[in-house]
Amino acid sequence: MTHDGPRGHTFVHTALWTAVIYVLLSVLSVAFLAPFAWMLSVSVHDLPGVFAQPFRWVPDPVRWNNFAEVTTLFPFWRYALNTAVITGLTLAGTLLSCSLAAFGFARIRFRGRDTLFAVCLATMMLPGQVTMIPLYMLFSALGWVDTYLPLIVPAFFGSPFYIFLLRQFFLTIPKEYDEAAMLDGAGRLRIYWSIVLPLARPALATVALFTFIGTWNDFFGPLIYLNSPELATLTLGLNMLKAQIVGTGATQWHLLMAGSVLIMIPNVVAFLLAQKQFLKGIAIGGLRG
Amino acid sequence: MRWHKRGDTFAGYAFIAPWLAGFVVFTLGPMVVSFGASFSSWTMLSPPTWVGAENYQRMVSDDPLFTASLLNTAYYAAVSVPLGTVLALLLALLLHRRLPGMGMFRTVFFLPSITNLVAVSILWIWIFNPEYGLLNGALRLVGLGAPLWLQSETWAKPALILMSLWSVGGSMVIFLAALQGVPPELYEAAALDGAGPMHRFFAITIPMISPAIFFSVVVGLIGGFQVFTQAFVMTGTAQPGTEGGPNNATLFVVLYLYKKAFQEFKIGYASALAWVVFFLILVFTQLQRRFARKWVYYESGEQ
Predict the structure, then answer these.
(1) Which of B102, B114, B221 should one mutate to test binding to chain A, selecting the residue with the greatest count of A CBs within 10 A?
(2) What are phi and psi of B266, to 5 degrees?
(3) Do B3 and A175 touch (CB under 8 A)?
(4) Domains of chain B by range and CATH?
């Protein structure tokens, strides 16, 4: 649909305008894709090729072996498993705790509900830095530093933005379903589990995607809580690899780029598979105003 | 109310119990402790002693690094947020027309904002390499100067700002959704009245999507004030403690806070820094909100 009015725009005019849009989009796409293309290209070069002038975008030969080589430079598969464990448990905790709270806020009328929901919304804007130091000391006192517990346990206690997102979706499910189920003798838990959750699958998928990408990419949490190299996540491991490689003569950029490519793959795949859910979630969050 | 029952209060609290417990233990409690700690002298090795407002006084009068980090952060946020907003709006306007291939373009523009920030930072270190990097290669091709980027005190912040423009996809998606909510009748009516495209853009599009612009700017500013990972990974030498270089040009407030807390173990001072960050974000949000009431158009019934 174009918003050109019924008058004043001839067919030629519209066609010209369309061409301008495509040209602009193509130029911008090249600019946005260039860093990715450069990363992929560097990741299949050999070291002299990385520094060759002029740079050859398609090297000869293409060194696919760089991807295998980088996984031997640091315990890549170990870190991938660590990251998967943290991400999996965080995902389970977030989906469970946030959907429970969202159900409470959306479908049960109780004293103090609106005040508590306002508190929940208010904490959405709270910068993490304010609670970071006391939290670190709390987890330190519990003996949790250098374990995965500080990264996983909080996920089981809800996250304001996801509670908000799920609550908005739960509100759109007709309350008559609950009433009918209650007349049949179903309890709240049963309504939550058998009626609301199945109907809210799209919203749950959105939350799962956000959580997956956020946890997979998390840097700050692992940075402050994990000390033992064997516990590191992929993101932390990649940064350690960078610190180890950079500043040792000719930096092996081709291997660093190969490692970066490998780390990005799960995100890109997850995003491409569920793009619609993801974009919708962002739009909902944004249109709240 | 129709479905108000006696057991509802119990059931309600039971459902929100995990969040409520988490709020008390992981948010409210730490906030109280952090606030108290900000008035203390406290290292990991020594117990806290009450020092009143000394931490805050020192910040204002006797800590050039704090002043520098504040100015760096203000510079970064003040330049990257407007530029990013304009770019995101431009992309959204281009994508808004239902032409073939728009989904593909949208994916291209959005992809950078979901990729791993550490991997992206490492990529951009190499892009910004003065000699072999992609950016200076392109600049030389068109005959422009080739700055030292991350190695230059002047160009390090512009480099990080340029990199931030690569991840405007989130705002773009929000603007796209907002554009789709503008009723086409408005444009038709305006066109019938003889309004040109520019006039329609400023008289209809901008006012109608102003809540989305406002939201995106505020979230952008909050994010801009919390910039950390890029500066931590991309700047300084590989030695710990050198992040924020060259010559503290990329020492942002949260990076400074991190160094005070986790490299120098100054809990009290770092807590005070955290509250200053919080306060600045709060003031900014409130100022924006007040300002927004004057010019942001909200459809009736919405908040």
Answers:
(1) B114
(2) -95, 85
(3) yes
(4) 57-295 (1.10.3720.10)
Q: Do B4 and A157 touch (CB under 8 A)?
A: no
For range B249-256, the mean pLDDT: 93
A57 touches chain B (CB under 8 A): no
pLDDT digits 0-9 by tens, B86-105: 999 999 999 998 888 898 99
CB pairs under 8 A between A and B: 287
Q: Contact A263/A79 with Cβ under 8 angstroms?
A: no
Residues belonging to chain B:
303
A42/A63 Cα distance (integer angstroms): 10
As a whole number of angstroms, the distance between CA A98 and CA A90 comes to 12
**A 66-95 near B (Cβ less than 8 A):** none
Specify the 3-state DSSP secondary structure of A252: coil
> How many angstroms away from the CA of A259 is the closest CA of chain B?
8
Contact between B173 and A279 under an 8 Å Cβ cutoff? The reply is yes
Where are chain A's structural domains? 75-247
- Tens-place pLDDT, residues B33-68: 999 999 998 887 788 889 888 999 999 898 999 999
What's the mean pLDDT when you consider all of chain B? Answer: 88
Nearest-CA distance A229 → chain B (Å):
16
Integer Cα distance of B153 and B189 in angstroms: 53
Min distance B284 CA to chain A CA atoms (Å): 12
**Min CA distance, B61 vs chain A (Å)?**
22
Alpha helices in A44-159 (DSSP H): 47-51, 65-73, 76-107, 113-122, 129-141, 149-152
Token match 């990329």: residue?
Answer: B250
CA-to-CA distance for A92 and A101, rounded, in angstroms? 14
Pair B54, B266: CB distance under 8 Å: no
- Measured between alpha carbons, how far is A81 from A74 in angstroms, rounded to an integer? 13
CATH class of A75-247: mainly alpha
What spatial distance separates the first Cα and last Cα of chain A, rounded to whole Å?
Answer: 26
Is the pLDDT at A286 greater than 70? The verdict is: no
Q: Which residues of A145-166 are buried (b: 16+ CB within 10 A; e: fewer)?
A: bebbebbbbbbbbbbbbbbbbb
Reported confidence tier of residue B192, pLDDT bands at 50, 70, 90: confident
